[in-house]
């Protein structure tokens, strides 16, 4: 399973021979200028919540690729209203087998609204089971006790978690979250894109290391084999 980082909380995962794209936000990200949004592959687009920094490029990529958009019910209906009918609505706690693997939608403590003000339901995270791996993407969230359920009932190989603080968990809480999900391999996202979420990356890595954990921060455009 290959992880490709596109900046902020946008990343690709290869799973079951398909390309999964999460939270597409490229053209609005000043740090991701070298990424060509028209070349990003997507068979499925998974969206954690309706904020613009998670779906600024979702409609255009969905229309270009005709990807199936997997998201909460309210956001799925909104895609339909934008003229993209290829979506699969889910809701918190629900799981579904797709041709690439299994997806479970998890809770996230955050807020959510679509860029045009449309109600977007609740924010979410995802557990992906594919190619004998289990990946947890927390989405934008606070540290929450619900993460213990993830650790109790899944054997997570890699956790993708926000670390930028201010709008989501910061490094300290992400370390506790990795205890809750019982996974010591974390890919950090949702940092440095905007001034309020700028953090000291070396310090963050050192903090994880001091707890016996690994914090991966691949540069934008780089791939990591999970
Ligand atoms: Ni958000
Ligand atoms: Mn966000």
Short summary of the structure?
Helix content is 21%, strand content 28%.
General description of the model:
The chain has 226 residues and is of the alpha/beta class. The protein has a single domain (2-225), classed as Ribonuclease Z/Hydroxyacylglutathione hydrolase-like (Metallo-beta-lactamase, Chain A). The protein is 21% helix and 28% strand. The protein contains six helices and 14 strands. The strands form two sheets. It has a seven-stranded mixed β-sheet, with helices on one face. The protein has a seven-stranded mixed β-sheet with strand order 7-8-9-10-11-12-13. Strand 12, helix 6 (201-210) and strand 13 form a beta-alpha-beta unit. The longest helix has 10 residues, at 171-180. The chain starts with a strand and ends with a strand. The mean pLDDT is 98. Bound molecules: nickel (II) ion and manganese (II) ion (MN).
Mind summarizing the main beta sheet?
A: 7 strands, mixed
- Helix/strand class: alpha/beta
Q: In angstroms, what separates the terminal alpha carbons?
A: 5 Å
What does the overall shape look like?
globular
- Spatial order of the strands in the main sheet? 6-5-4-3-2-1-14
- Please count the helical segments: 6
CATH architecture label = 4-Layer Sandwich
Radius of gyration based on Cα positions:
16 Å
Query: Which regions contain 5 or more consecutive residues with pLDDT less than 50?
Result: none
The number of domains: 1
| CATH top-level class | Alpha Beta
